[in-house]
Design goal:
The protein has 13 helices and 20 strands. With about 525 residues, the protein is α+β, with helices and mostly antiparallel strands. It has four domains: about 170 residues, MutS, DNA mismatch repair protein, domain I (3-Layer(aba) Sandwich); about 50 residues, no CATH class; about 160 residues, 2-Layer Sandwich (Dna Ligase, domain 1), CATH 3.30.1490.100; about 100 residues, no CATH class. The strands form five sheets. Strands 15-16-17-18-19-20 form a six-stranded antiparallel barrel. The protein has a five-stranded mixed β-sheet with strand order 5-6-1-7-8. Helix 6 links the parallel strand 7 and strand 8. Helix 1 packs across helix 4. The chain is elongated, with a radius of gyration of 37 Å. The termini are far apart.
Length: about 525
């Protein structure tokens, strides 16, 4: 036996809009569909309904009943995001979820009851469903029954959650109005002329007589009245990305008001990702421009993250760098999900950087410096020590235990100077070096660059000189490199690595031994 739960959000266009603009929840709000004189009310808030505004009314009729109305057009972007959020709520309870129409979902709850109150498992499940939907910003009702038809009707019948057992479905449906089955209006008129106004009244008619007089449509309606619903539950495939956005009441020109609204969308996006245990690896921004423009851009993140402040900073820097060029009338932010980096804490080893914090820092560096300036340096495939390549930064895991400190005599390490410092070198002939003479070794160094900040003071007489070590690269190109490297120790202290460009005769300090 199947057991299905129906999760229904009443007045879904209104609920989706209020989810994007929660400040309007206490105001009289109507949602319009259509343009100019053809616009009609499709949903109205409680305060608006108390004033007599109903679906199908024109804008002028609504304003006549309640002059202080807040009016919003129907927003497909907000509704699409709300539908996905409702799906995620349902999928956190059951892996098999189907959408009948926007705002109405069916869940297969067989086996889910074991995780709730053993005394009243289905009622407890329904309450948890309602609370989860409310946390997502969508007020919902829940009905649980054996068929889709009975579950949906139960969801629309107070109190909520409404539980209908398999044996009591026919009894539950019988006193309800025939309109709850949503029949074709012609069939409904015909049955009303016959004096049949309840579901039970139709169910008691002979099936053969109904088919003979009303045809196949009457046969299907008669079967539904008796509680038969042959439609199977068809689970949907989750989308590859998460989306949030909305249409704006007024086009925005300045950046700050747009970022204020985008922050709310990012917070909703972050909560949805957190419920699924995911993070954002790539952020997409789609802007609707006045009057009919459209602009899209994509931001790659160095590591998955769902920190709102970081994502908002990336959007700010991207829009400051390349403004859209026209007023923004609507937007949609998409997050391509990925699993966040996991970290395993150690008992004895050093503390590892939290993956979320590392991803946030890298994302800010990417936005400020550019993707081609952030990464891990790796030596290039050449003989010169200067060239290097940037590779994506993937820190290795920390050691399991803290390494023991090195003992004994350690080797010297060279601290390279970038860029190399120009110097003047006198050789054994006591003349400034201009022509190549391999027998001459450096005997004195004098600085060429003045006393500048950050430039080391390299000068003095050479006590010990080792070299030369020759380097030649790219001899088959016009811009070949040929150098002579020396290691020198000065009388004023310090050991340096210097080199001489053979072609030009210029000397430079390349590093300092520590």
């Amino acid at each position: 036996m199947t057991r299905l739960a129906c999760l229904e959000v009443p007045l879904f266009p209104l609920a989706a809009r209020l989810r994007s603009e929660p400040d309007l929840r206490e105001d009289p709000v109507i949602i319009l569909q259509g343009k100019a004189h053809a616009a009609r009310v499709v949903a109205a808030s409680r305060r608006a309904r108390r004033a007599g505004i109903r679906a199908g009314a024109t804008l002028n009729q609504a304003r006549a009943l309640l002059p202080g109305l807040t009016i919003r057009p129907r927003d497909e972007t907000s509704e699409r995001a709300a539908r996905e959020a409702l799906f995620e709520v349902a999928e956190s309870f059951s892996p098999r979820v189907e959408e009948e129409e926007p705002g109405i979902l069916y869940l297969d709850i067989i086996g889910c009851q074991h995780h709730f109150d053993p005394q009243r498992p289905e009622e407890d499940l329904g309450r948890h469903l309602e609370r989860a939907a409310a946390r997502a910003g969508l007020p919902a009702r829940v009905g649980i029954a054996t068929s889709k038809l009975a579950a949906r009707i139960a969801a629309g019948t107070p109190p909520t959650p409404r539980i209908v057992s398999a044996a009591a479905e026919a009894e539950f449906l019988a006193p309800l109005p025939l309109a709850r089955l949503r029949p074709d209006y012609r069939l409904l008129e015909t049955l009303q002329r016959w004096g049949i106004t309840s579901i039970g009244g139709l169910a008691r008619l002979p099936a053969a007589e109904v088919v003979g007089r009303l045809g196949l449509g009457g046969e299907a309606l008669h079967a539904r009245a008796r509680g038969f619903d042959p439609r199977p539950l068809v689970a949907r495939t989750p989308p590859p990305e998460f989306r949030e956005g909305m249409a704006l009441e007024w086009p925005l020109v300045a950046l700050e008001p747009f970022l204020f609204i985008a922050r709310n969308a990012l917070e909703r996006l972050s909560r949805r990702l957190a419920r699924q245990g995911l993070a954002c690896s790539r952020l997409g921004i789609s802007l609707q421009l006045e009057p009919d423009g459209h602009h899209e851009r994509s931001l790659a993140l160095p590591a998955p993250t769902r920190e709102v402040k970081t994502l908002l900073t990336l959007i700010r820097l991207e829009l400051e760098k390349t403004p859209p060029g026209a007023p923004v009338a609507g937007f949609e932010i998409s997050a391509h999900p990925d699993r966040p980096r996991a970290a395993q804490l150690t008992l004895f080893g050093p503390t590892e950087i939290p993956p979320d914090q590392l991803a946030t820092t890298l994302a800010r560096l990417f936005a400020l410096l550019g993707e081609d300036r952030v990464g891990s340096p790796r030596p290039a495939n050449c003989h010169r020590p200067e060239p290097f390549l940037l590779t994506p930064y993937t820190p290795p895991p920390p050691p399991r235990v803290r390494p023991e400190p090195a003992t004994g005599r350690s080797l010297l390490g060279v601290r390279v100077l970038r860029p190399p410092v120009p110097i003047e070198v006198f050789t054994a002939s006591a003349q400034p070096s201009a022509e190549r003479n391999p027998t001459d070794r450096p005997v004195e160094i004098a600085p060429i660059v003045g006393d500048q900040k950050g430039v080391p003071d390299i000068q003095g007489h050479v006590r010990v000189a080792s070299g030369p070590w020759e380097l030649e690269e790219g001899w088959w190109h016009e811009e070949s490199v040929q150098r002579e490297y020396w290691d020198v120790e000065l009388d004023r202290g310090g050991i340096y690595r210097i080199y001489r460009e053979v072609e030009s005769g210029e000397w430079r300090a390349d590093g300092i031994y520590d």
